[in-house]
Write a structure and sequence with these properties.
By secondary structure, the protein is α/β, with parallel strands linked by helices. 22% of the residues lie in helices and 24% in strands.
């Protein structure tokens, strides 16, 4: 059984949801903490949403110095699948596993809504159970969700197919080029602003484009990782 670690920082608030998503996908969830100096032999890592260290200084800026992040960065460079959700995405940019940065929403307000995304890259460790061009609906909730990067970086992301998910119909935070999530060159590290862990169980997630009231469009993030790990064994 794939062992997927979920990191808890001071101020994390979606760690238990992410752990539940891992279990519903068929994996074993392993609790990891910001102060840990070992990844406990996990096969993949999820950095969950929340407000790590109160988002003081800048969202994710303090988390990059947590002892666990040195291990996560090394493992990611070695090919381990790593997913950063919302605040976790912010942390991934701060440790430079992903390019660009996250700033305040363009409208300067916290936003919470069901959001349609288009899967742009279905070949990452966290999107392989989707199809390219597929539209999914998962919750979005953020205040520092505007993805920004210089034009050269944005052009490179587009040219290399590293825009993994894109907002459809409405750009909720002003992110450049409607980018909702990106991947690294290798495809093992993915960061996105919306929350797939809140759309993994029928009856508890949002209505979706294709699945009616099932509300499980986010589950394939986690089954994708497990499929990737199984294929690699």
């Amino acid at each position: 059984m794939a062992r997927i670690g979920v990191v808890t920082f001071p101020g994390s608030l979606d760690d238990r949801d992410a752990a539940r998503a891992v279990r519903l996908a068929g994996g074993e969830s392993v609790n990891l903490f910001h102060s840990d100096e070992s990844l406990q032999d996990v096969d993949a890592v999820v950095l969950p949403g929340g407000f790590s260290y109160g988002d003081y200084l800048r969202a994710g800026a303090i988390s990059r110095f947590a002892p666990i992040m040195e291990k996560v960065v090394d493992a990611a460079h070695g090919g381990m699948p790593v997913l950063g959700i919302c605040n976790g995405f912010q942390v991934l940019t701060e440790v430079h596993l992903l390019p660009g940065s996250m700033i305040k929403n363009e409208h300067l307000h916290f936003i919470c809504r069901d959001q349609v995304l288009r899967v742009e890259n279905a070949e990452t460790a966290w999107s392989s159970d989707y199809e390219a061009g597929q539209e999914i609906t998962i919750p979005l909730k953020n205040q520092d969700g505007q993805y920004v990067a210089d034009e050269a970086t944005l052009d490179a992301l587009e040219a290399e197919g590293r825009v993994a998910f894109r907002y459809v119909g409405f750009n909720p935070n002003g992110s450049r080029r409607d980018i909702a999530g990106i991947t690294n060159e290798r495809g093992n590290v993915v960061g996105l602003m919306p929350h797939p862990e809140h759309a993994v169980e029928a009856g508890f997630g949002p209505d979706s484009v294709l699945n009616g009231r099932r509300g499980t469009d986010g589950l394939s993030f986690f089954t994708s990782a497990i499929s990737t790990l199984v294929a690699a064994t």
